[in-house]
Amino acid sequence: MLAEVDSPEESAALADWLADAGLEADDVVPAARTVLLDGVDPGRAMALLETWPGGSAVRARRTVDIPVSYDGPDLPLVARRWEVSVDEVVRRHTSLTFTSAFCGFAPGFAYLAGLPEAWWLPRLADPRPRVPAGSVAIAGEWCGVYPTASPGGWLLLGTTDVALWDAASAEPALLAPGTQVRFVSA
């Protein structure tokens, strides 16, 4: 079953609310503007969804600080588009607290919400064939960290050595939905 909402914040809030409401499900997966309800009784799920009060408040889980070497090849481009210095790009990025809205694209890749709308920038017109693992990047309304090397079109701000995915862990994704994330200049 797929529930549609208006924003990533509402998606995360609905997923939290469903967990608190005791929905019996194999999995509840928030995304950008939907929540997947896997293994649910459709009638019970619909009845429960009809009682959701709405909103976008998300239960904060934990805060993760990620050290970043701000050495990304797109830093000068971001500075030009924001009409600031490279140092100011770093200051702005490290001043924010992001929230993991949902995971996707690759195991451990979290879409981090919290970039002010005035700072949103489009993806590259021509994606790179290979973005190194640990690359910290922005695109549109999102910030993210590439957990593995892969193609990608986001603007690269820097790199980190933090492991984002550990399949052997009880919670494999370091930045599971609801995690607060701060970037720290290394």
TrEMBL record:
Query: In which domain of life is the source organism classified?
Result: Bacteria
Source taxonomy lineage? Answer: Bacteria, Bacillati, Actinomycetota, Actinomycetes, Propionibacteriales
> Which Gene3D superfamilies does the record match to this protein?
3.30.1360.40, Cyclophilin-like
Q: Which Pfam families match?
A: CT_C_D
Q: Which residues form the Carboxyltransferase domain?
A: 1-175
* Keywords assigned by UniProt, alphabetized: ATP-binding, Hydrolase, Nucleotide-binding
InterPro entries tied to this protein: CT_C_D, Cyclophilin-like_dom_sf, PxpB
Annotated protein name in UniProt: Carboxyltransferase domain-containing protein
